[in-house]
Amino acid sequence: MGNDFKSRDKFTTIIDAALKVFGEKGYYNATISEIARAAGVSEATIYEYFGSKEDLLFAIPGEITRQAVDFLEGMAPFIRGAANKIRAIVYGYYRLYKENPYYSSLVLLNLKHNRKFMDAEGYQAVKKAAAILLEAIKEGMESGEFRKDIDPYLVRSILLGTIEHIFFRWHLKERREELPDFVDPLLEILTRGIGKPPEPRTYQINISIPSEGASGTPPAG
Amino acid sequence: MGNDFKSRDKFTTIIDAALKVFGEKGYYNATISEIARAAGVSEATIYEYFGSKEDLLFAIPGEITRQAVDFLEGMAPFIRGAANKIRAIVYGYYRLYKENPYYSSLVLLNLKHNRKFMDAEGYQAVKKAAAILLEAIKEGMESGEFRKDIDPYLVRSILLGTIEHIFFRWHLKERREELPDFVDPLLEILTRGIGKPPEPRTYQINISIPSEGASGTPPAG
Amino acid sequence: MGNDFKSRDKFTTIIDAALKVFGEKGYYNATISEIARAAGVSEATIYEYFGSKEDLLFAIPGEITRQAVDFLEGMAPFIRGAANKIRAIVYGYYRLYKENPYYSSLVLLNLKHNRKFMDAEGYQAVKKAAAILLEAIKEGMESGEFRKDIDPYLVRSILLGTIEHIFFRWHLKERREELPDFVDPLLEILTRGIGKPPEPRTYQINISIPSEGASGTPPAG
Amino acid sequence: MGNDFKSRDKFTTIIDAALKVFGEKGYYNATISEIARAAGVSEATIYEYFGSKEDLLFAIPGEITRQAVDFLEGMAPFIRGAANKIRAIVYGYYRLYKENPYYSSLVLLNLKHNRKFMDAEGYQAVKKAAAILLEAIKEGMESGEFRKDIDPYLVRSILLGTIEHIFFRWHLKERREELPDFVDPLLEILTRGIGKPPEPRTYQINISIPSEGASGTPPAG
DNA sequence: TATGAATGAGATTTCATTCAT
DNA sequence: GATGAATGAAATCTCATTCAT
User: Phi/psi of residue A93, each to 5°?
Assistant: First the structure.
């Protein structure tokens, strides 16, 4: 009785069906008719909710990405240290992509290549997530956690590129191989790579000289 | 022979036209008719040389990738040190992608997402390049240049993922932004990340003791 | 009663909206949804009042044409002379079409071309108007105002055809040009064309002959 | 072997089929599929020759109208007197419309109502025919054949409007009634309506008076 | 070998219309 | 009586692909 947008249910049902079909066959090989079948509605109904096939594609990430971003934004202030923040974000991507394989397939194989998507609303959430990651990196540089002579954009590209690359291969091989648990190893390498090297420490050496002729002992590690 | 050459020409002409058109508009938005126009042949002629639109797509990387791989393979033995080898390979990708924007656009935006491409001949060259990179990483681990507790596949993913990510963005923004010169910074970070930390060094300290009781002064920081 | 009125209102509202939309975009390019929007009701409501899109179209002229015809019929007996009657009728068309541009657009561009309209109720009023015009012409022939060797149907076609043609062009040019004030010039031409020519008059010539013989001069060539 | 435009035959065949189908059912109720069937080609073939359904519609009058106009233009200089020229033109319309009923149906019921047609190439021929008619009327005014106080545009509207109106009705009644042979009666009425009234003539009366008592003869006509 | 011409097979999209509430 | 929601049924148009010449 007078839902705001026709029926929320049907909207979601269609989005879900589209996510599945697009994710499996790719945008161009998917047909509205197949999505309609998957959603249990008629083709015409899809056009009641979405203006075009492309609109439907672009409407998908909105919801799911926004949720992830909200979560990130809510969590960020409570995490101490840039490295920990970055870890939370990367882990967030990992979880999101791993637990929503259709979604990651869609984003990585279809949406990211669509120039028009950059103008669509759903892209904003994606951009925001990337911005949060960049902030964390800069924060680490300022706080001294990371070196100051690194390019934060490059660091972000390393992180996102690696994540995407690994998921990408996973999808290309149709997810038949185990997805490697790469988050910690990646961060370990990166942290070494961009972390401050240990300051040269000052050693205090006490030497007591016995009364008669002495032999030097080597320093202990 | 003359005929042979003529055919060879036409083959190449079509490949070039296809590279350009696919690279500009993407596989699905390109039409055979447009490629035919660009190549100056009829559509039917394209089907004399290639069995289908997809075949034509898959035929493109063969040539160009093979050249790049040949170059790599020829060069590899002459380069000392895993880090240097890796640098050569990464730089090779960088040059290849930068100087052949249609090619990189095609590979990154179209081919990589096509599962069938993995069965096509042209994919072999891509795989070989990746294999060479992996070998170099492993070599570095064995030689002690790199730590032994890293996952070489992850390292390769970091390298390839970063390269792809950066070129990807460059294409998405229609190459209007300057492509960052990321090779050295990336390798610098990675080398620190995976390189062996300096061995604790042994210092030889000679102390001569004056005849009368003396007190050592601590080194000044 | 209140209900009755409410319905009457809605009926009229829909007719008005349909007149406007059909008149502007033409029958085929107009959509029920647009008419519903213009009328401020739902599409389904339109179907409560009219059985189909075509029914709605055919229902439009009924009201307005009937009014015009009633007016004509009421006025006719009080007008002396066929020419004056015809003038009243033509002027009636002129006023009707000019002051109801949506209506004339609809009638001239849509309704008149629809064979089915000839079976619809609204067509009766149109036919009646044409019949009245024909009667006036015949009356003029009988009364001697007009020649007897003319075809009254042709005369009617001249009148209606001219009116329609001029309004037609006016609409095609989107009413941006001034509508010519053609009624009197048209009737002037037609009246001369079909009016009785002046009877050959008999002249009375009185000739008085002078006493001495005279000779006339022959006509010069 | 290398016709200029694919095959002239097929082009004509499609035009003819389209003329028939559009003429019978009207533009909107006709389907490409039906035209294809009537032409004995596939739907796709139609789109090889014409860019869209509308293009096909607009392409129809080009040929046939142009022929008629060429004929008119060729004939005009050899006809003496404006009235005769006008008669030739009106008769030309009459023949054209009568002998090509699909064509006249199409023009009167579909094309004339299409604002876009006014921008199409085929419309030029229609305009030219109208221009020739107008010229003839003006010529008659200048030569003194017609009165000078008439509006030539109105006269043209009378002619075209009447022609269209009569053919219009003929088509609406599905050509089951005999088409009246209206050309001469129409021109007779119009010529009287716009023609110069006879100048008051001067009669020369010769009277010869016989020497002895004479009787007057009545004047001769 | 090269191609002009033709088409099969669908895909997206639109809308008038229906029906349960 | 009014309508939100859903859809059946088509229609236009596109293109990869084929084939006779």
Answer: -60, -45
Q: How far apart are CA A159 and CA A147, in angstroms?
A: 17
Which fold is adopted by the domain A53-194? Tetracycline Repressor; domain 2 (1.10.357)
Q: Kindly tell me the burial class for residue D212, based on how many C-beta atoms sit within 10 Å of its own C-beta (0-12, 13-18, 19 or more).
A: exposed
Between chains, do C214 and D216 touch, taking CB under 8 Å as contact?
A: no
Cross-strand partners of D195 = D146
CB under 8 Å, gap of 24 or more: what pairs does D117-121 form?
D117/D57, D117/D58, D118/C172, D120/D58, D121/D58, D121/D62
- What angle do the packed helices D152-172 and C183-194 form, to 10 degrees? 80
The dihedral through the CA atoms of C122, C125, C130, C134 has a sign that is positive
Query: Which positions of chain F lie under 7 Å from any protein Cβ?
Result: 1-21
Residues of D (46-105) placing their beta carbon closer than 7 angstroms to any atom of strand E are: 47-48
Which site among B86, B115, B192 would you substitute to test the A interface, given the most A Cβ atoms closer than 10 Å to its Cβ?
A: B192
User: How far is Cα D47 from Cα D32, in angstroms, rounded to an integer?
Assistant: 9
- Report chain A residues whose CB lies below 8 A from the CB of B166: 157, 161
Proximity of residue D31 CB to strand E below 7 A: no
- A146 forms beta bridges with A195
- At C14, the amino acid letter reads I
Tokens of B39: 């190549």
Tell which residue, A91, A194, A110, A188, has the closest CA to residue A152. Answer: A194
The DSSP-derived string for A14-78 is HHHHHHHHHHHH-TTT--HHHHHHHHTS-HHHHHHH-SSHHHHHHHHHHHHHHHHHHHHHHHGGG
In this structure, what are the phi and psi dihedrals at residue A31, rounded to the nearest 5 degrees?
-120, 150
Q: Does C131 touch chain D (CB under 8 A)?
A: no
Secondary structure class of D176 (helix, strand, coil): coil
CATH topology of domain D1-51: Arc Repressor Mutant, subunit A (1.10.10)
Q: What angle do CA C56, C58, C61 make, to 5 degrees?
A: 110
Judge whether residue D35 contacts strand F, using its CB and a 7 Å cut-off: no
For residues A48, A54, A55, A61, the Cα torsion angle rounded to the nearest 10 degrees is 130
Residues 6 or more apart in contact with residue D12 via CB below 8 angstroms: none
> B76: which 2 tokens?
């590899």
D156/chain C closest Cα distance in angstroms: 9
Q: What is the domain partition of chain B in residue ranges?
A: 1-51, 53-194
Q: Which residues contact A32 (CB under 8 A, 6 or more apart)?
A: A43, A46, A53
Coil vs helix vs strand at C191: helix
Contact D74, D80 (CB under 8 A): no
- The per-residue b/e assignment along D13-47, b for 16 or more CB within 10 angstroms, e otherwise, is bbbbbbbbbbbbebbeebebebbbebbebeeebbe
Give the separation between CA B55 and CA B50, rounded to whole angstroms: 6
Nucleic strand F contacts from chain A, 22-51, CB < 7 Å: 41-45, 47-48
Rounded Cα distance between C86 and C76, Å, is 9
pLDDT in single tens digits along all 221 residues of chain B: 334 445 668 899 999 999 999 999 999 999 999 999 999 999 999 999 999 999 999 998 877 888 888 888 888 778 889 999 999 999 999 999 999 999 998 888 888 777 788 877 778 888 888 999 999 999 999 999 999 999 999 999 999 999 999 998 898 888 888 999 999 999 999 999 988 876 666 666 676 766 655 454 555 44
Rounded to whole angstroms, how far apart are CA atoms C32 and C42? 9
Q: Are B41 and B14 in contact (CB under 8 A)?
A: yes
Q: Which residues of C touch D182 (CB under 8 A)?
A: 151, 154, 157
| Buried/exposed code over D51-82 (b: 16+ C-beta within 10 A; e: otherwise) | eebeebbbbbbbbbbbebbeebeeeeeeeeeb
For residue D37, the Cα-to-chain-centroid distance in whole angstroms is 31
